[in-house]
Amino acid sequence: MSILLNINVLFYIIAFLFGGIPFGLILVKLRYGIDIRKIGSGSIGATNVYRAIKDTDPKNAKKFSILTIILDATKGLIVVLAAKILGLSYETQWAIALLSILGHCYSPYLGFKGGKGVATAIGSVILLIPIEGICGLIIWGIVGKVFKISSISSLVGVLSGIGLTFVVPYLFPIPSSISIVDQIHTHTPAVLIGLFIIYTHIPNIKRLFSGQESKVL
To answer: For residue 113, which phi and psi values (nearest 5 degrees)?
Structure first.
């Protein structure tokens, strides 16, 4: 029982439970009475929110999609921010980030099913590697605008941000506290996030190669 009183363990549990809150599902269910798990990919993320209501309410579909992105990103950001305020170690903060992403993808409130984890991943790491995170977010937006395919923009945005962790600290003079290598002496958590995002997008990647992945207009 004493292990549950350890502040790190408490944060790990909170991160997973908070990350699991299905904001997209809740928003659409409350406003339109639609279960987005029965629409499109069945994901609880922003893209499926858009798909679920674009025919019913095209004027607000994009607004609800953007709101879902913000809320899903905020889930990860809040728990990492709280850990920072309380002075928890960087190792703990990265573990919290990973667990909030896992919570979103395997929500304990939805039978351990959920979304793809992209928005929560960005929100979770933005305070840990802000330069790479912001760059990845910008790339995500640009690629999405050009190709209008959510899976491409998500994969390229997240993987670009992670790839930049191997570049930015060595090319530009940044404070050591915002370099992952100076924080924890390894790129492992960032790489794990990248691999996990690829894993959650395997069905999308298969559709991309077969030319069946749909655009989000």
So the answer is: -125, 160
Q: Which position has the token pair 């030319």?
A: 211
Which residue do the tokens 């350890």 mark? 6
Report the distance separating Cα 44 and Cα 42, nearest Å.
7
Return the DSSP state at 172.
S
**pLDDT tens per residue, range 40-55:** 889 999 999 999 999 8
Whole-number Å distance between alpha carbons of 79 and 195 = 22
User: How many angstroms separate the CA atoms of 120 and 101, rounded?
Assistant: 6
CA distance 23 to 93: 23
pLDDT digits (tens, 9 = 90+) for 108-139: 999 999 999 999 999 999 999 999 999 999 99
- Report which DSSP code applies to 5: G
pTM check: above 0.85: yes
Based on the number of CB atoms within 10 Å of its own CB, is 214 exposed (0-12), middle (13-18) or buried (19 or more)?
middle
Domain boundaries, the chain: 2-210
